[in-house]
Design goal:
single chain; mainly alpha; 3-stranded antiparallel sheet
Length: 100
Amino acid sequence: MIESTEESIEKTVYCAEHGSMMITGEHIPLYRYIVMARVLKLEMLGFRSTKGRTCYSIIKSELGYRGNRKKVLAQLEAHIADTKAMLQDVEAGDWVPYQK
């Protein structure tokens, strides 16, 4: 049986009885950026997550950030905070996204 972990993120994060998690809906990019921020912190300590491109280079190319790892991490964390605030406004009904 799959149940939601919190009411505020209902239908977004589900936890199964055996401990696995499933992320659905419009919050997937947000969770991806949160994971990328954590991986970037590990890269700053000297860890490598893959043999391919670093998370630092992926963040810079996708979001267009410039600077060293510390500055890029600060920009990414600010982006995450802004996205969380926007999603909370959407869920509260205070903000309506632009529609064509």
